[in-house]
Amino acid sequence: MMTFILRRTGSLVLLLAAVSFITFTLFQLGPSDPAAAACGQECTPERVAEARVALGMDQPFLVQYADYIRGLFSSRMIGAPGAQTLCEWPCLGKSFQTNENVADIIARSLPYTFSMAIGALVLWTITGVGLGLLAALRKGSPVDKFIVGAASVGVSLPIPVTGLFLLLLFVNQLHLLPFTTNEINSPFGPQGPGAWVANYLLPWIALAVLFSASYIRVTRTNMIETFGEDFIRTARAKGLAPRTVTFKHGVRAGITPVVTMLGMDIGLLLGGAVLTEQIFSVPGLGFTAVHAAISGDLPVTMAITMLAAFFVIVANVVVDLAYAAIDPRVRLQ
Amino acid sequence: MTQLHTTAAAAGAPASEATAPFLEVRNLSVKFPTDDGVVSAVNGMDFALERGQTLGIVGESGSGKSVTSQALMGLLKGTSAQVSGQAMFQGKDLVTLPESAMRQLRGRNIGMIFQDPLSALHPFYTVGHQIAEAYLVHNKASKKQARAAAVDMLGRVGIPSPEQRYDEYPHHFSGGMRQRAMIAMALICEPELLIADEPTTALDVTVQAQILDLMSGLQEETNSALILITHDLGVVAEVCDNVLVMYGGQCVESGPVDEIFYDTQHPYTLGLLNSMPTLNSAASQLNPIPGQPPSLLDLPKGCIFSARCQYAELVNDGLCASQRPQLSVEDGHGKRCHLSGPQIITIRNSR
Asked: Looking at this predicted complex, what is its ipTM?
């Protein structure tokens, strides 16, 4: 078990190194010039050159990259010679746009993304797995057909459509929920958990409609297959109660593909739900990343890309561990 | 001698609880509605069984052997299958018994062993846990007591160092060991009736003999009744008291094992016996029954076997193709065939 975790941590570091290098390279090759952007409207070639020095972009590519990586391990000085400022560890650079510490930008955006992801995750897992299981247990019945039909509709509704529709209906027309505000980003804030739920309920639903549709289908298919297995017949032949047969023997065996999906989706979602954050004006990681990418703000884009990659990789490790916990055949020596 | 068929006896004496057979199946039928039509998997099975006896049910794949056993176990309840007829077991009709009551019998009074022990055991739970679970459903016991019972049972089915093996998973066991574990699971509550559905098919020949010995031994210990479903006539000859030969969901011949083997009354049974290769036969080719079993979606109007029967033309008026023969029972030996006794003897002797 220990070697497994060590090995996975090792590959995590390697992957992050690769992701950071690729992002860095892409940015160098890209069409945007952050120095020109930073020097403003009335720009002379001299001022662009100054800005380039100030942003550290006069250095060779590999030196820039090495400086960046060094900042991940210790504080470093940033800026033009003579006008350097300290970038404290963990130094992800400073925003080309606002000169703000990138670590602070991330720390500010992260709670919004977490708030959105956690609620949506709980909502779609419960509805997706629950309805999928119900459909599998009632295979062929009208209930099953209704659930499968609803899932097909849900999976084909893009977030902008559901999101705007939900806003229109619940906020504009029915006045049941408030407009989303940036002031709430934690259930432990001064407004309390109720306000937190009310603030994020619509983004949660919008995400859950999209995600639970595929969870319903995967759960249903896998559970139907599992309920046809010989060991389910054995469980019934023992005289076990239907509940025990369904959950202890059936769900545990049929749920593994759902666990995989869940891990991947959590990882992706923590990297920022770009569309949802845009529509509900939630300043999370996705929202920040889009604005950074458009304005050529390399340090911010880099940091969010790496963080997203980190979440995906960690989620994968967690999925592997969960697999081992569920299925003894993959238990690690 | 135990009578496999009790119709004659039941007509003479007034039926009472004491004289009623331990298990009596009458006109058991199972149909599966499908998109292509109704599949008639079992079409009117009759048999009876006493404690301490072993009944072998023999037939090709798709002859309805497994469906019969699943109907008796009530495993078809809650599915689309339509089960009709009667199966009296200890005064209860297994066909009409509600699922909740059936559940009390399953595992406790009727145990079942399946064909492939690897897929029949749950891959995610230890072997011991699965056996103890079967004990706990039907007994008021602590987990510790259940564990002790399961360890004891694992020892009785011949698994060495059962205390350690209890905590191992099915994939740690060899094929024979897994089937021993299945047997332990089926017998942990000492059921009076054990149904074994091809228990040795997935095993090596050497292991097959061990498993059969084990089952016979345990059956003697507990004086239980055993229904052994198989397509292996060698297994039948070794273990069974009575045999029931199935074809197209019907019993075509039944009786004491010696009579089935040495006084065969049905052309299908003759074909089965003939198709068995023997060690001392000089023939280099197998001797199968020509043709295919009938489609269960559309059974022939006449004898179900008539299309493959070499002797159908011996019967006058094309009776074999037009009229389904009844099961006629004589001295406990039943056959479902239009051929007369002397005709059968001539056929047997001509082989």
From this structure: 0.85
